[in-house]
Amino acid sequence: SGASLRYSTGTGGEGSEGEGAGLASSESGGSGFSLAAAALPERRRPGGGRPRYEVVRELGAEEVRWFYREDRKTWKPFIGYDSLRIELAYRALGAGGPAEAREGEAAAVEPVCVRSGLYEVDVASAESYPVYWNQTEKIPVMRGQWFIDGTWQPLEEEESNLIEQEHLNRFKGQQLQESFDMEVSKPVDGKEAIHSLKLSRNHVDWHSVDEVYLYSDATTSKIARTVTQKLGFSKASSSGTRLHRGYVEEATLEDKPPQTSHIVFVVHGIGQKMDQGRIIKNTAMMRDTARKVEEKYFSNLATHVEFLPVEWRSKLTLDGDTVDSITPDKVRGLRDMLNSSAMDIMYYTSPLYRDELVKGLQQELNRLYTLFCSRNPEFEEKGGKVSIVSHSLGCVITYDIMTGWNPVRLYEQLLQKEEEELEDRWMSYEEQRLLEELYITKQRLREIEERLHGLKASTISKTPVLKFKVENFFCMGSPLAVFLALRGIRPGNSGSQDHILPRRICNRLLNIFHPTDPVAYRLEPLILKHYSNISPVQIHWYNTANPLPYEHMKPNFLNPTKEPTSVTDSESVSTVPSPTTSPVMVRRHYGESITNIGKASILGAASIGKGLGGMLFSRFGRSSTTTPQTLETGKEGAEGDDKKATTVGTPPFPQSSSGFLEPPVELEHRIDFELREGLVESRYWSAVTSHTAYWSSLDIALFLLTFMYKHDQEDTDKSNLDAI
């Protein structure tokens, strides 16, 4: 690779050069190269500091640092592992190595996988691009050699190359005598520049071999410099910017991200109007938030959770912009919100678009999983897990893909039921004869269909299959419950998740929602009816000290008869408020009108063609009495105990009549989890914004990671106990 160290030790021996570094192309996880042990000798410093005498040499690969810039913000450094491999690829290209490496045509170099394998860097074009999703804007990358004091931001590459060339021409082979602590800028008062270089808008002065300053040649800078120098200040201290050669930290191969043990596919709803088609940015927000939580709470684990956006709608044409063109302009904000939620459901209940949507999501999930495993072959070998986080109607489509549900099968079941009812009632001889004829014809039709299936796989009744088992299925702002209710699912007598989603398909189902989200519904009352009177589990604030584990939380009962009107002292929450949320407030109904508009739209859309209008009108006609039981959620954190439960106002129901205090059956695991509602939130405003407020929530990020790291944390705790 031509990687060389820039100094030789006091013994006079030449610094080792990492020539002939192994640059084997690799598809695994995030490394584009595997490095031979001799490629980059470790820099050993006697006593942990820089050798007393150094000789100016070409920068080693470990001293150069590569940077990337997203959204036109400041340059961010790649971690040492990534930077080293990019630099070695750059030198292999013949752009920065010794003369013999630059002779002839530049060798073709494989792209380098960076940033936990999510991106690749094309060294030739100095660009980075994502591996798992499409992005129109390429991310520029830059090679840093000279850096600004304090911020350690790199100088622009063109200027940096000129300064480096001049520095080597003038000082190569000269010795340095300075402590290794380069961060402390020494005053250079009274020192004259021993060398200078003119650039297009700046000039550089060398006051000594490693005291280098950059000056702006703009007129205002010259005037300021002249004034301060007349006042007795030196030129450097008045307006110069000190430069450092080589990055503040040396790049090492040990500075690498932990291995990915869990991948999370993030699935969006269909409309994407409210999110402006930004599932990639939403996933990036969730990923960045999760990184902060990982560093704070899970830094002791050697594994890593990766979030991948499932961007699948852009490939579907659907109706084009027809719906937008027929939407009136009045109250546009509210209409856009409903278009992004209710319209999603109309698309999905349309026989014209449903198969297209299911197939689009299923294929994209399988494509991403196959691609990830091909680049990370050890993922499956080491038992890597897969979870899905779905938003809005994406929850319903993901559920249907996992379970293989489709309306054709439901229609066949209804027909079969009608036939059974016909057989049970009295009928004339003519009716019997026609029914037998119909039965024989249907049997013949099934035989023909089976023969046809043998020749060509059916695209209508084929059950969509995923190539992986889902460990956790997180629903956010999900209308799944209302879809299941309208498909005929009713509460049972078992507290098992299998009633709505078998454990063999998905190990754990979790339903997350904001209390004022107009699109979200509860799932627990579909399994056990009396859970409509038990509040959802309150999600912990991310900065709560020693929170009670979710599995140890006691149920809080809702009061269907008495409405609290104010927050009492006993109901206040003792935990520290989160910066993103205010203390929980007891729910009132004055903000429900707008929430019910959204819920009515969803119910109306979901029932199109099902003949359920009467049921819907009767349900919403009774909303004033049923909503507190079925739609209203918990009023305080479940970390409260029996005393808290009584402050909610639960009347002393006799156990024999109500069964609420000691229900005969409990859920194996809680499913409904609710974000805490803030005191400062406007009910009307939060109803509009809450449906898309999940992506950057630290509370949700901690919640997701708590369940995904559950087994890793338990294994770590067990190994620590064994060691003790």
Automatic annotation (TrEMBL):
<feature type="region of interest" description="Disordered">
    <location>
        <begin position="623"/>
        <end position="661"/>
    </location>
</feature>
<feature type="region of interest" description="Disordered">
    <location>
        <begin position="1"/>
        <end position="51"/>
    </location>
</feature>
<dbReference type="InterPro" id="IPR058055">
    <property type="entry name" value="PA-PLA1"/>
</dbReference>
<feature type="domain" description="DDHD">
    <location>
        <begin position="466"/>
        <end position="710"/>
    </location>
</feature>
<dbReference type="Pfam" id="PF02862">
    <property type="entry name" value="DDHD"/>
</dbReference>
<feature type="compositionally biased region" description="Low complexity">
    <location>
        <begin position="22"/>
        <end position="40"/>
    </location>
</feature>
<dbReference type="GO" id="GO:0005737">
    <property type="term" value="C:cytoplasm"/>
</dbReference>
<feature type="compositionally biased region" description="Basic and acidic residues">
    <location>
        <begin position="633"/>
        <end position="645"/>
    </location>
</feature>
<feature type="region of interest" description="Disordered">
    <location>
        <begin position="561"/>
        <end position="583"/>
    </location>
</feature>
<dbReference type="GO" id="GO:0004620">
    <property type="term" value="F:phospholipase activity"/>
</dbReference>
<feature type="compositionally biased region" description="Basic and acidic residues">
    <location>
        <begin position="41"/>
        <end position="51"/>
    </location>
</feature>
<dbReference type="GO" id="GO:0046872">
    <property type="term" value="F:metal ion binding"/>
</dbReference>
<dbReference type="InterPro" id="IPR004177">
    <property type="entry name" value="DDHD_dom"/>
</dbReference>
<feature type="compositionally biased region" description="Polar residues">
    <location>
        <begin position="623"/>
        <end position="632"/>
    </location>
</feature>
<feature type="compositionally biased region" description="Gly residues">
    <location>
        <begin position="10"/>
        <end position="21"/>
    </location>
</feature>
<feature type="compositionally biased region" description="Low complexity">
    <location>
        <begin position="564"/>
        <end position="583"/>
    </location>
</feature>
<protein>
    <submittedName>
        <fullName>DDHD1 Phospholipase</fullName>
    </submittedName>
</protein>
<comment type="similarity">
    <text>Belongs to the PA-PLA1 family.</text>
</comment>
